[in-house]
Design a protein that fits this description.
The protein is α+β, with helices and mostly antiparallel strands and 81 residues long. The protein starts with a strand and ends with a strand. The protein contains 2 helices and 5 strands. Helix content is 26%, strand content 41%. The chain has a 5-stranded mixed sheet.
Length: 81
């Protein structure tokens, strides 16, 4: 299943601050991991909520919500390592 990726607030701001090459690699990694299998790839639930998750993707810690009903993953926090 392929899900649409969206970036909200702080996550979009942090993504835009990445250098172009890094952002391209990050976007490709997000599409190939979280965008295809949001409950896999070493992600862990936060606060006991299955759809509120954290994962390390391409050198960044990403906090995101999974909305399977609308086939969307929304990143709400992004911290570059």
């Amino acid at each position: 299943m392929v899900l649409r990726l969206a970036y909200a607030g702080q996550a979009e701001s942090a993504r835009r601050q990445m250098a172009a090459g890094r952002r391209s690699r990050f976007d490709a990694a997000m599409a190939g991991t979280v965008g295809r299998a949001p409950y896999a790839h070493g992600s862990t639930p936060i606060k006991g909520e299955r759809d509120y998750r954290e994962a390390t993707v391409s050198g960044a810690i990403v906090v995101y919500y999974v909305s399977a009903g609308v086939r969307t993953v929304t990143a709400v926090q992004l911290n570059n390592l």
